[in-house]
Amino acid sequence: MHLLVDARSVRFAPAPEDIYWENLTADTHRLFIFKALFINMVVFIVLFFFTSPTYIISQIELILNFKTFTPSEKVRSMYSLLTKLSLCLLRGHK
């Protein structure tokens, strides 16, 4: 990797009265909102894809083993499944 030092030119900065200071203000509010939304979206995506497969697999396992349950176990497992499902639907995805 070459820095190409010979191709660069250096000069003094302009005097402070020659600078339009109004043009140097940054819109920090917009930047803060963008950063906050971006970070929250990344966290949501990561958590969604790490927790959803585990929950789905546990529910599929429950459904596949449903035939071997006794009647009282079936009622308890269905109650548990419906409780979890209703909580998920009412409050959003975990």
Provide a brief overview of the structure.
This protein has 94 residues and is mainly alpha-helical.
Can you give a write-up of this model?
62% of the residues lie in helices and 0% in strands. By secondary structure, it is an all-alpha fold. The protein has one domain. It is elongated. The two termini are 48 Å apart. The model has no long low-confidence stretch (mean pLDDT 79).
**Largest β sheet strand count, sense and barrel closure:** none
**Structural class designation:** mainly alpha
Instruction: For the record, give the distance between the C-alpha atoms at the N and C termini, rounded to a whole number.
Output: 48 Å
Work out the helix count: 2
Return the string of H and E elements: HH
Fraction of residues in β-strands: under 5%
How does the overall form come out from the CA principal axes? elongated
Task: Provide tags for this entry.
single chain, 94 residues, 2 helices, mainly alpha
Write the SSE topology:
Layout: H1 28-64, H2 71-91
